[in-house]
Amino acid sequence: MQAKAYAAQAADTPLAPWNFERRDVGPQDVLIEIAYCGVCHTDVHQARNEWFPGIFPMVPGHEIVGKIVQVGVDAKKHKPGDLAGVGVMVDSCRTCEDCRNGQEQFCSVSPVVTYNTRDKNGQPVYGGYSNYIVVHEDFALRVSEKLDLAGVAPLLCAGITTYSPLRRRNVGKGHKLAVVGLGGLGHMAVKFGAAFGADVTVLSTSPNKAEAARRLGANRLVVTKDEEQMKAAQRSFDFIIDTVAADHDINPYLATLRTNGVYVNVGMPVQPFQVPSFTLAMGNKVVAGSGAGGLPETQEMLDFCAEKNIVADVELVNMKDINAAFERMLRGDVLYRFVIDMKTL
Ligand code: NAP
Ligand code: ZN
Ligand code: ZN
């Protein structure tokens, strides 16, 4: 079918309107009319070739929510009219070890992320800055009618990416959690950390976010550029989640871990981190990473959010203002996630 979108034609040109063919709805596919799509920092990294040479034209967007408008003849999980969400992946083999363990995002055979890659037939796949998307029914998650739909969109990436590592380590009551960077991912990490019962501190470059951090559920904000404040925070956290998109030195953060503390990186800066062996040895420190989340855990997270009434704090943007939204995100000028209102496409 014909679909409308905003696409980057090249890594150095702004996003602009583009029409293209979506694949037909196969027997096990669903067609989703997209209502909202969140703007993840990953969209900027990829549209500008910051990680690797991309596939152009590129339609970014992997925080997708909307309504199912058609289901394939063999699709059983959804019916027309249902709300659904699509996150960072749209297909996988379903049989490899990771797929069987519900970690489809690490599929070793045929992983298909939502955009900037090719599907099993070698065709490029296009993301959520578009009016429609066709996905296999397994990759359409159930979304509650109870929540504000625009605020649900960022849960599909920012939400699951922060929920998953906190759950995996059972972060909760009695733990001191630090969230580095109060952006799209960071503000969700604060909400989840608070919902799980942890004592949450935000480590931020932005002193003006202190009040907002408290409103989101943090108990305090430490300004990372302030040496005195960072010194006072040394050896104080059990767990750190680092959500920073820009290149940065993680050693000052590692110094704020208690003995046996765990640092988990979820940001995707380009430059590798450098950590002296002594820093790791002294205090039994764990440096870990985490990538999005699988289908079962993403559904669990969406259900948890429906139960606890958790959504992202969003600023709705008009599709035509997407390039300005990218620039504002790079300046840290967003509280805390831009979400495109697809009615404006
Ligand atoms: P974002 O909204 O731009 O937030 C990043 C935050 O980092 C900013 O709000 C800012 O917070 C802080 N920051 C910016 N520049 C900094 C600097 N030079 N030094 C220290 N802190 C800085 O981005 P996002 O959408 O949350 O994404 C964050 C990163 O996660 C991106 O790299 C994205 O690609 C990655 N990501 C990874 C996964 C995964 O599966 N692991 C999934 C989604 C996204 P303050 O103002 O509070 O300092
Ligand atoms: Zn993302
Ligand atoms: Zn697999």
Automatic annotation (TrEMBL):
The source's domain of life comes to Bacteria
Which UniProt keywords are listed? Answer: Metal-binding, Oxidoreductase, Zinc
- Presence of the UniProt keyword Metal-binding in the record: yes
| Gene Ontology MF terms in the entry | alcohol dehydrogenase (NADP+) activity; zinc ion binding
Question: InterPro entries from the xrefs?
Answer: ADH-like_C (IPR013149), ADH-like_N (IPR013154), ADH_Zn_CS (IPR002328), CAD-like (IPR047109), ER (IPR020843), GroES-like_sf (IPR011032), NAD(P)-bd_dom_sf (IPR036291)
Where is the Enoyl reductase (ER) domain positioned along the sequence? 12-340
Recorded protein name is: NAD(P)-dependent alcohol dehydrogenase
